Amino acid sequence: METRKLTEGGILSAIQIILGIILIPTGIGYSFYVEIFLPISVTLVVMRCGKKVGLLSGFNTIAVIMLCFSNGFLALYSIQALGFGVLTGWILEKKWSVLSDLLVECLLGCVFLLVLDWMTAGLLGTSLLSDEVTDMLVAAVPTVDETTILCVYYLSIAAIPIASVLITYIGSLFIGNRLGILQKTTKEKYRILRYYKRTA
Predict the structure, then answer these.
(1) Nearest residue to 104 via CA among 118, 80, 82, 87
(2) 58 contacts 150 by C-beta, under 8 angstroms
(3) 162 and 69 Cβ atoms separated by less than 8 Å
(4) Is the pTM of this model over 0.85?
(5) What does the alpha-carbon distance between residue 96 and residue 118 come to, in Å, rounded to a whole number?
(6) Is 70 exceeded by the pLDDT of residue 162?
(7) Three-state SS string across 128-164, please?
(8) Are the C-beta atoms of residues 108 and 65 closer than 8 Å to each other?
(9) Which of 4, 87, 129, 146 is 20 to 30 A from 154 (CA-CA)?
(10) If we measure between CA atoms, which residue out of 57, 23, 21, 18 comes closest to residue 39?
(11) Can you tell me the distance from the alpha carbon of 111 to that of 43, in angstroms, rounded to the nearest whole number?
(12) CA triplet 50, 54, 58: central angle to 5 degrees?
């Protein structure tokens, strides 16, 4: 069974690497590949093969992409995608409600993102979140006082994981259902989302 899981994880990791090598040079690697495809595929590996194989598959993908493109920022964004993927796979196995899943994942995703940014600032000397959010704030609210800017700044950082969490969570359930890898708990969560309009 362990050999089968490792084989399936290796095949899925090879697919991740091939798609990364194809998509990243085209310019859509940061948007489609890193933000959408990579976390969903890692979640599917975790649901199918377990957390250990999911982590191994994700790190293998990140290592090969790092060697191919020698891009530190791409590797950091890929680590973020790996973290969201493993987190989503772990939470989907819990017997919680869908809203509890999303709340816990958003909170943990925010903490993970802040720790990753803190480590990035320590290693590279620059903060990825600070640069992006500050540029957006200066363009949006140029004449507001410093307290308001700091407030909006931290709220913006807290809101960053929400989109990734929603896309990864919903996409993994729907794609996992198509692939037939959902178990009892994940099947129930899929049904809740699938028939949300009827039950709301």
Answers:
(1) 87
(2) no
(3) no
(4) no
(5) 31
(6) yes
(7) HHHHHHHHHHHHHCCCCCHHHHHHHHHHHHHHHHHHH
(8) no
(9) 87
(10) 57
(11) 19
(12) 180
Q: Which residue has the tokens 């640069």?
A: 131
Question: By C-alpha distance, which of 40, 37, 46 is closest to 183?
Answer: 46
Q: Give dist(CA 104, CA 8) in Å, integer.
A: 29
Mapping DSSP to helix (H, G, I), strand (E, B) and coil, where does residue 180 land? coil
Q: How far apart are the first and last CA of the chain?
A: 41
d(CA 109, CA 55): 16
The tens digit of pLDDT for each residue in 104-137 reads 888 888 888 778 777 777 777 766 666 666 666 6
Question: Taking the CA atoms of the chain, what radius of gyration do you get in angstroms?
Answer: 18
Secondary structure letter of residue 27 according to DSSP: T
The half-sphere exposure of 31 on its side-chain side, counting CA atoms within 13 A, is 3
Look-up of token digits 């017997």:
95
Residue 106 and residue 161 in contact, taking contact as beta carbons nearer than 8 Å: yes
C-alpha–C-alpha distance, residues 154 and 14, integer Å:
37
Q: How many alpha carbons fall within 13 Å on the CB side of residue 191? A: 7
- Tokens in use for 96? 């919680």
Supply φ then ψ for residue 53, to 5 degrees. -70, -35
